[in-house]
Design goal:
The chain is built from 17 helices and 22 strands. The protein is of the alpha+beta class. It folds into 3 domains: about 375 residues, Glycosyltransferase (Alpha/alpha barrel), CATH 1.50.10.10; about 90 residues, Immunoglobulin-like (Sandwich); about 130 residues, no CATH class. A hairpin with a 6-residue loop joins strand 8 and strand 9.
Length: about 625
Amino acid sequence: MTLNGKIAPAATPVAPERLRQNGPWGDMLRDYAQTWMMHVNEDLLLDGFRNRPGLQAWIGEHIGKFMLGALPAAAMLGFGELRAKVGRLARGLIVSQEPDGYLGTYVGHRFQGPSPDNPRDVWDIWIHKYCILALLAYWAATGEQTALDAAARAGDRLREEFGPGRRDINATDRHCGLASGSVLEPIVGLYRATGEERFLEFADHIVTGWETGDRPGIVGKLRAREDIATIGNGKAYEMMSCFVGLLEYARMTGHREFIDMVLDARNQLADTQRYPTGGMSSGEFFLRPGMLPESADIETCVTFTWMQLNLRLYELCGDERALDLVEEAGWNQLLPAFSPTADTLSYFLSMTGPKRFFRKWIHGTDGSAYETAPITCCHNNGHRGLTLLPQFACARTSDDAVAVNFYSEGRWEIELADGRRVRVEQCTDCPHSGNVRIEATTSDQSACELRLRVPYWVESMTVNGQPVDAGARRVTVPVQGRGLFTLDMPMRPRIVFSGFGARGKASVARGPIIYALDQPPPGLELDQVALDLGCGDITARIREEKQDGWTILRVPVAAIPATSVSAGLPADGGTAALVPIQLAGLKNNPGLEGCVAFTIDKWAHNPRKRETFFPEYRVLLPFFWGRIP
């Protein structure tokens, strides 16, 4: 629907202060806030602005990303200390702004691209992007006008530097304009917040500039439905950030074609660039379609942006597939990247272990200046991701119904268009089981509709004992004042087959969770274990056990010969225990004991030493269909 030339959202998420997320997701958010967010050094985050150029080339990105995650986290948790910390950071950032509006961390080479006389990467526009986004979020949460004024001055500084008739913004980064071009999102945000036409004109110029000369060609390639990996240099995080900006641009201008183009691009990425865990990228880049190396480094920043992109699509056009993709990536790629001690995470999390938990305080420096929790781009985007899914667990639809999108312990208060409020409480141990009890209450005992999502992983589902029609995406139930609903979604183990380069391998899943092998049966190496699919319905032979509150799957396996050439067929390997990917690779992991696990790659050439120092795991397993009698 278009309203006053703008696209009205199909769904509106719940404000952070009106929800409480519990269960495994809420526990990690709460623990990470106390153990990591509160221990990030405030002086470190402000250092690059107070003492330009700071300690690291792109140090200025961290304060904006930190604030963007900490603000909703503080509201969800009712965490006053964290809210106060964000306030100090916002005020420190504002007073560090230079008179001309500059809000970067450089002295020389400002707004410059890579060049022989420039020894450092210049990320000025990227830094301004996150500072503006953070100040806009802080203004929206607090109403402090100084934050909006500072954001507007920074936007004007960029406009004066790169607006019509000025310098080419695409020439300022080494990623063919993808990093700098992603500033479209905050520039549109400034127009949305202020109504000033000059910001919309600048946004128009950025979008048009993507197609000029040897540039990323984002709009042209999206319109032609070309291979996404050929946009710019294929840098995944920055590219999808541009897609998010393009969606915001479409929202404010009414260009629905752009939403359709991004939706098609999303589908292409989901169909050709997505791993069984829901993650994306190989060493931070998109490769050619179908090039999905099993040991690829899948960046946590990419995981967050993939979730962000899909939730924007759901918000703008009600796309149901977006929720499937977010649930998949959230449980299997984002949450497993966090250390179980909730004080750090993995910069990369691949389908083949180990999990390397980052203990260095900040990438690219020796850490001698400040005592702080470890911090990288992925640490900050990781906690932003933790706050995303809860806000969309329930949503108000454009026709004033309540959509229940994700099932997890917690409560949500949804404000309808006419001012009525609906309180939704979920009692469940999902994802451990598919049993959910939902209580919905309207503020004035009036009627409303509750629309319950049918997750992609269910084979059958009942609501209050009544079976759901096969193939349904939603179940609509009426609420008159107060309603109680019991959902039963049996979690039968299933086999997930992979395509492209992973043909001949499969994964095991239960509910939304992907499983991994990290302890082979006695006498076998990790690479000798195959799923035994020659025994009929393998899922009927899988046995479930409990460990630390999670379900462990004991699966029949075949033993692949260890010799390089063998005429023998795989032997019966008995059973192997598969664990949820959240638990994989944790036993004896040195990254949990305080060492700088990310830097111990000197052992990588020696498989035996790698196994000694890094507990490995496999998400993809070879399979064997049967034996000849």
